[in-house]
Specification:
about 450 residues, 2 domains, 10-stranded mixed sheet, Purple Acid Phosphatase, chain A, domain 2, alpha/beta
Length: about 450
């Protein structure tokens, strides 16, 4: 009797196990944003356009941003070259990102090394203490390149972060074992070839001879001032990613895909194609290679403007989401050489520096409207199937006073439509359709082609 009852219980348990295993997994939602340059608190504001945006980020199962900021108290000296602005914010502000709902941050970008290895390490510590998963920098190339993982109730997510735009001192290195590796960021290097007509190439060769540079007399290519020129039918520029970097990251992505349910690859890339709104050829090649290796999403940022979207083999590639926060005008201090560069002496203060750099809001970022307009992308996955991709336009306050601009809010209807039309226009070369529904964009994911060529 006892044996029969035991057999019955075993059968019930086995049946329950099979049913549980066969139960469909719930959908997983992602919120993806672009560059976050944060120097002021977020949590003190209450406007509906702002709190609605924060609710959007918090409502996702997984939220990502590119952390284009260093957190430290000036313990480290500035490097002689920065990513354009020597970035620094109060370490307490990293918790504002957690408050806003973010889970994942990329660290590979042109500001990762503004304050050297010391600033990088301090930032790593503060980001970790805030409970955020970070990727893209490390004590060696292997560590900077490796995937980092976020565990959620709906699945495990891997993040791989790289940058093609950076001062060279920021690049991490390998070690042969005899000397230490160089700490830094995970680089995506690329080569650039300038194509010119043969007449132009010969003219350049003549200039080189006049300067005593002694180029080869007969060749269809020429290296001059560190730039490569080749003869072609018409002028153009060709860029290609460095194979070693692509192959190295492909191995990481392939491994991460075995260890996580979803893999995000993200790249900080300022470089454009025919203009800043189109991705450079090397970035398209790299993004495709990462999807081929097992990535589920590719997120681009860096140029401070939005670029197009591609659905490649069913996976979304967002070539640039633009800015999420842009508070680079309220950095507390700048090094002496920054003041020298704008013609200011030792008696100038930070407010004088900002005014001189922007010519009192008459040049630079402050007069470039598109830099202050972007979107948040929300994605829904059912297993490995992308079922929804929506775009929520945001405004960072173009034209508003310096103390107000740089913080994101949901865009008002007319601006929202303009932002979405820009993304739609820039997505057409990738054969991606975007439907505009009131103030939200819906990317057509079901009927997209497996790949597209520009």
């Amino acid at each position: 009797m006892r044996r029969g009852f035991t057999t019955f219980l075993f059968g019930v348990a086995a049946t329950l196990t099979i049913v549980a295993a066969a139960a469909p997994r719930p959908p997983v939602t992602f919120a993806l944003t672009g560059d976050s340059i944060i120097t002021r608190k977020l949590s003190v504001y209450q406007e509906p356009e702002f709190t609605g945006l924060i609710d959007l980020v918090r409502g996702a199962d997984v939220a990502f941003t590119n952390l284009e900021m260093l957190f430290h108290d000036y313990e480290s000296y500035p490097m002689n070259e920065s990513g354009g602005t020597w970035m620094r914010a109060d370490p307490a502000l990293v918790r504002e990102l957690s408050w806003a709902g973010f889970d994942l941050v990329s660290r590979a970008n042109n500001h990762a090394g503004d304050y050297g290895v010391g600033g990088m390490r301090l930032t790593t510590r503060y980001v970790r203490e805030a409970g955020l998963v970070q990727a893209g920098v490390g004590e060696s190339l292997a560590e900077a390149r490796e995937a980092r993982f976020l565990d959620t109730t709906k699945g495990r997510v891997a993040l791989v972060s790289t940058a093609s735009t950076f001062p060279d001192h920021s690049r991490a290195s390998d070690s042969r074992g005899d000397i230490p590796a160089r700490p830094g960021l995970n680089p995506l290097r690329f080569t650039t070839t300038n194509i010119v007509t043969r007449d132009r190439l010969e003219a350049l060769r003549g200039v080189a001879r006049e300067l005593g540079l002694r180029p080869p007399d007969q060749s269809d290519r020429l290296t001059l001032w560190g730039r490569r020129f080749v003869a072609g039918d018409s002028a153009g520029v060709r860029t290609e990613p460095v194979k070693a970097d692509v192959d190295g990251m492909a191995r990481v992505v392939s491994s991460a895909a075995k260890m996580a349910d979803y893999v995000i690859v993200t790249s900080h890339s300022h470089e454009g194609g025919v203009d800043r709104t189109t991705p450079a050829d090397f970035l398209v090649t790299f993004a495709h290679a990462m999807v081929d290796a097992g990535a589920d999403m590719f997120v681009g940022h860096g140029p401070h403007v939005v670029r197009g979207i591609e659905i490649y083999k069913g996976k979304p590639i967002l070539y640039s989401i633009g800015d999420f926060m842009f508070q680079n005008e309220t950095v507390l201090r700048f090094p002496a050489e920054a003041y020298d560069a704008v013609g200011l002496g030792r008696d100038a203060e930070i407010g004088d520096f900002n005014a001189a750099r922007s010519d009192n809001d008459r040049r630079g970022f402050n007069v470039d409207r598109e830099i202050w307009e972007s979107f948040v992308a929300t994605l829904q996955w059912n297993g490995k199937q992308l079922t929804e991709l929506r775009l929520y336009p945001i405004s960072l306050g173009f034209g508003r006073p310096m103390t107000e601009r740089g913080r994101p809010m949901l865009a008002e209807p007319a601006l929202a439509r303009q932002i979405l039309e820009n993304v739609a226009t820039r997505s057409r070369p990738f054969k991606t359709g975007i439907a505009i529904e009131n103030t939200v964009g819906r990317v057509v994911v079901g009927g997209a082609t497996k790949s597209s060529q520009r």
